[in-house]
Write a sequence for this structure.
């Protein structure tokens, strides 16, 4: 068992009129190797939740366990936790600061106190993992394109060799191709390394085809925790939270409403095409 | 001549080294000619770095063409004596909602443009009221912009432009940094402006769902106009859009897949309803 | 955390103080600060405190909110107190090793602490009850005569207003970058002074880059909205004095007189005999 959240609540502005429960009694088990989508609109508490997982925010009440140990115990090393639970923030390219790409990726492993050779090896591997070509290694990170910068920033976290990788809205602000590239990269990482991945997003369409499990947050509460198909069947509840099911789900539901015996559980375009073909061929 | 017309516009970014010598020239806009009529809803589409934002900045004289001419309501943008008329007639909304709000209170921000134009106080108040009502933000007039959501901030920015009574409003990726709800809010406000107030709208975006309402779409690539036509005409060319690093709405993509596998459907299906109707006709 | 700094942040509510002309509030703040350095007896401080707390009461800003903003300057306050305690020569009351605390030191330290606290509280009432735009309007109009001496009053006022608007945004950004770097194992707390300074590089570089990008964006947005300096601008909320502003000026004058007469002219001995205690 990798990560366990036990009755985690987080409030800010405690004691004033502005008291807000950003997280409200969250119970969660995140086993090794799962690919999880964390969905919620802005302000639903999803970013607050992931910052609890690597100890950046301490819960007001409740406990978080990593491999059976309470992460807020005196003798638990936060630094080690942060290397094991890697968190890539929203717009991560805004944290780049070194003179060249390679040094920037070295920052994480260097902070772990590794020797120079190991640091550089890890940085090199991480940059390879995100698919950045060698020619960019010694360029200033600020001269790269938006998508490249973001990949460098992700490499900066990968170089710490995390066991759990959390990406907070990794596709924000990118164009469709850039978005597909990042999502493709994430699913490739998952296939190659088998690490636990938590993908935070406000779009079901982004995560639907990749993840094993979806968590839906609303107003600091965990509303759904299930496999994608089951979550998408709650279209009305999702909409009342300001979310939407994947577009394909809507298409299939419309067809079903018009009396066609289609399976509304399909998620991807190709599955939907196959399903529609099957039903229409039988006519 | 339309409200905005460009003729053979070229724009070069000149990069200089520390001594001020020319290091390289990047042509961001290449030979663009377009003629936009009053009351139009125009969408300019393109991946990041396609030159669409650079082109947009020519429409209200933030940038001037290296070659060619841009006319706003018949006025050449390089004519310095008309500069302020041009900026009043062609208002601009930018991508980052935080970086374009000047006022600390919503209504003061909306009043900023009219103040600069030297409008009498009483009329400023009338304009602020009507503009905030037009984007549905009147009840927030006394709020601090920092407390608003991204979509609300962008609506305030739009109100700030409307208060200047422009003939045309240019929105440079106004939704790129917003979540789906914020995107919907902003697009709804923009459509209402075009429908009700008959303001010419030029919407620059890379989100496909946002352009279905446009009456004309330009697709840019490498600084040139790669495609132009109605949304339906554009979306019927799925392969070409993919080459241009863009995508089509999921519904259109599904229809395209179905068609490719032998189901005879019309080109350029844009909505779930259209697809269901087309399939219904098949039986 | 860093977000708790409330100095300079406008607190939205409705009160007499909020509605006062910003020029009145600027003058009042100035008068209050001057009064703090004019008074030199306990009665004077009591009058200042009374004035200050009635203003806080009138402003409808929760006291807790104001105090929260003070947290940021506790460090500064401590330094002042410590320096005054140990470095004022005089009759020693207490000494350890080579350091000694003098009677004069205690009095001076207490005075400085009170003055500083009052000063910050007083000026934060102004910023808490006045929107930056309003404040800069006040400055611009109040300082207009300086334009004769080629002082760019409008530009300075605009710069201040923008700086104030972006303070909360940049603070939030600092918080975010800090966390992002901590997620990469950065340590902003341990180590010596040099180590600490070095550890700020990963925070400051991204912060500066972001600030420049924002400045650039904002300049473009302002120009796009026809901003061209102060000439020919009209005002959405032009300043003109109302009855309450004149009353405020009167109150202020009365306060100043009280401070001078009771807080300065009457000697300590006279008060002591008045109240009947000897210091």
């Amino acid at each position: 068992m990798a990560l366990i959240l036990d009755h985690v609540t987080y409030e800010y502005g405690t004691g004033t009129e502005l008291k807000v429960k950003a997280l409200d009694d969250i119970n969660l088990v995140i086993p090794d190797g799962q690919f999880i989508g964390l969905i919620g609109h802005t302000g639903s508490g999803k970013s607050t939740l992931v910052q609890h997982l690597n100890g950046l925010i301490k819960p007001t009440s409740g406990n978080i366990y990593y491999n059976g140990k309470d992460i807020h115990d005196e003798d638990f090393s936060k630094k080690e936790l942060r290397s094991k639970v890697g968190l890539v923030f929203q717009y991560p390219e805004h944290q780049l600061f070194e003179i060249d790409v390679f040094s920037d990726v070295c920052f994480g492993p260097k902070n772990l106190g590794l020797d120079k050779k190991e640091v550089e090896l890890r940085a090199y591997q991480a940059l390879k993992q995100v698919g950045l070509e060698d020619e960019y290694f010694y360029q200033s990170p600020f001269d790269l394109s938006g998508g490249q910068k973001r990949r460098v920033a992700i490499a900066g976290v990968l170089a710490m060799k995390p066991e759990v990788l959390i990406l907070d809205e990794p596709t924000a602000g990118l164009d469709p191709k850039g978005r597909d590239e990042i999502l493709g990269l994430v699913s490739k990482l998952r296939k190659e390394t088998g690490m636990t991945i938590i993908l935070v997003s406000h779009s079901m369409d982004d995560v639907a085809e990749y993840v094993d499990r979806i968590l839906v947050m609303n107003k600091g509460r965990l509303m759904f925790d299930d496999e994608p198909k089951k979550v998408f069947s709650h279209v009305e509840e999702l909409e009342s939270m300001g979310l939407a099911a994947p577009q394909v789900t809507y298409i299939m539901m419309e067809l079903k409403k018009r009396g066609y015996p289609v399976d509304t559980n399909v998620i991807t375009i190709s599955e939907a095409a196959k399903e529609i073909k099957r039903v229409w061929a039988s006519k | 001549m339309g409200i905005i017309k460009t003729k053979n516009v070229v724009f070069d970014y000149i990069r200089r080294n520390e001594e001020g010598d020319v290091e390289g020239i990047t042509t961001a806009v290449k030979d663009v000619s377009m003629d936009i009529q009053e009351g139009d809803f125009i969408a300019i589409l393109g991946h990041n770095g396609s030159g669409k934002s650079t082109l947009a900045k020519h429409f209200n004289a933030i940038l001037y063409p290296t070659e060619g001419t841009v006319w706003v309501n018949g006025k050449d943008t390089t004519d310095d004596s008309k500069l302020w008329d041009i900026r009043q007639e062609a208002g601009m909304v930018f991508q980052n909602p935080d970086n374009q709000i000047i006022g600390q209170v919503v209504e003061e921000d909306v009043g900023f443009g009219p103040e600069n134009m030297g409008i009498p106080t009483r009329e400023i108040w009338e304009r602020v009221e009507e503009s905030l009502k037009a984007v549905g933000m009147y009840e927030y007039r006394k709020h601090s912009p920092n407390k608003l959501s991204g979509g609300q901030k962008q609506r305030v920015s739009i109100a700030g432009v409307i208060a200047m009574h422009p003939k045309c409003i240019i929105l440079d990726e106004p939704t790129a940094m917003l979540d789906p709800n914020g995107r919907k809010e902003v697009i709804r406000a923009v459509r209402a402006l075009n429908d009700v107030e008959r303001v010419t709208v030029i919407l620059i975006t890379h989100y496909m769902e946002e352009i279905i309402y446009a009456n004309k779409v330009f697709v840019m690539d490498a600084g040139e106009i790669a495609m132009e036509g109605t949304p339906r005409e554009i979306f019927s060319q799925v392969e070409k859009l993919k080459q241009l690093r863009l995508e089509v709405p999921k519904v259109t993509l599904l229809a395209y897949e179905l068609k490719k596998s032998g189901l005879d459907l019309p080109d350029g299906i844009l909505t779930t309803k259209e697809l269901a109707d087309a399939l219904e006709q098949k039986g | 955390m860093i977000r708790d700094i409330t100095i300079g942040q406008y607190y939205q509510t409705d009160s007499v103080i909020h509605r006062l002309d910003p020029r009145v509030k600027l003058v009042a703040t100035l008068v209050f600060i001057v009064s703090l350095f004019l008074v030199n007896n306990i009665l004077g401080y009591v009058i200042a405190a009374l004035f200050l707390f009635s203003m806080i009461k009138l402003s409808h800003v929760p006291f807790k909110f104001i105090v929260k903003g003070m947290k940021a300057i506790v460090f500064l306050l401590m330094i002042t107190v410590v320096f005054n305690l140990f470095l004022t020569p005089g009759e020693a009351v207490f000494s350890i090793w080579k350091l000694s605390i003098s009677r004069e030191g205690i009095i001076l330290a207490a005075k400085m602490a009170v003055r500083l606290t009052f000063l910050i509280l007083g000026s934060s009432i102004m910023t808490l009850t006045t929107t930056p735009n309003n404040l800069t309007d006040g400055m611009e109009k109040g300082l207009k005569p300086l334009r004769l001496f080629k002082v760019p009053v409008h530009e300075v006022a605009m710069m201040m207003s923008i700086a104030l608007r972006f303070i909360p945004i940049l603070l939030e950004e600092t918080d975010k970058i800090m966390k992002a770097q901590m997620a990469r194992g950065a340590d902003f707390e341990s180590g010596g002074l040099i180590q600490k300074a070095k550890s700020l590089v990963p925070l400051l570089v991204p912060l500066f880059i972001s600030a420049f990008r924002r400045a650039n964006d904002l300049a473009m947005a302002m120009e796009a909205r026809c901003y061209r300096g102060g000439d020919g601008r009209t005002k959405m909320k032009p300043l003109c004095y109302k009855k309450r502003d004149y009353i405020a000026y009167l109150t202020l004058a009365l306060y100043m007189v009280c401070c001078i007469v009771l807080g300065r002219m009457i000697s300590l001995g006279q008060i002591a005999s008045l109240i009947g205690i000897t210091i």
